Amino acid sequence: MLNFLVSLGLASALLLPAAAKAQDAADYPNKPVRIIVTVPPGGAVDLVTRMVAEELRKKFGQPFIVENRGAGAGVAAAEAVLASPPDGYLLMASQPAPITVIKMLFSNVNFDPAVFEPVVVMAKIPNVLLVKNDFPAKTAQEFLTYVKQNPGKVNFASQGVGTTTHLTGELFMTLTGTSLVHVPYRGTAPALNDLVAGHVDISFMEYSSAVQLHQNGRARIIAVASTARMAALPDIPTLGELGVPNFTSDTWNALSAPPKTPPAIIAKLNSAANEGLRSPEVQERFKSLNLTAGGGSPAEMGQFVREETARWSEVITRAGVKPQ
Predict the structure, then answer these.
(1) What domain range includes position 232?
(2) Are 264 and 90 in contact, with CB atoms under 8 Å apart?
(3) In whole angstroms, what is the distance from residue 292 CA to residue 64 CA?
(4) Do 74 and 89 share a structural domain?
(5) Of residues 201, 238, 234, the one with CA closest to residue 220
(6) What is the model's pLDDT at position 26?
């Protein structure tokens, strides 16, 4: 009998953590949740995160507080999330680098980006080739000819090292055999401000951030990085049409959680985020901002992140980008 009671006690002790986790997931969230954004305010990632956070607030009845930590290409933000308890109360909203190729770009990265738990891809935005108004080339074909004839004389602005705008420029140089000078900024707004002012020549910028400048005549979109022409820009060619093979590039942003976050909490966040992304209000808002809503399961996001990691790792290797 004594042995039986001891065994029963041990079994109960082993079951307690699982029961506690299940209870935690059932009650989640019962206090405010913080979402750290890996870029400064003003860009698409920040905007999308705030819309999704509002939908989560409405669904769960708890504040989802958005914080921007744009320094160091998202390394500091990622480290803060990784150091937090895996309880769903600190999440990360990022562009690709912090959860894909960050270790290839920065020598001081001491974590594996693959350890983050995928929650959901929030949005995808095609990138475009945006040039300053007085750039000598007026068409995409003229641009390609110009940069080939002027190696090292054209610079391109990015949102920072490791962002999609940076890696898209590296991809362009690799596929065309051209040489551009990379000028990294800390976010979308300063990069575009300097392009409009004429301090930098071009940017492989996300469409949602570039389109208003194009429409207002403050800069020019002369090519798109999608597989087909965009319905909103029917007269603007793809770079593939100009003989740049396999050139496609999207900026995307996603919500991730610390490793070992309980699957039940991930599932609750994923379900609520998908519901929010499908809502008519968000769909209409995304449409007005030229954004494409994401969605899908955590497993689908995980597979997508692995594919993007492999793709951009190859670009970084072929371009010879050295870690900073």
Answers:
(1) 126-250
(2) no
(3) 22
(4) yes
(5) 201
(6) 87
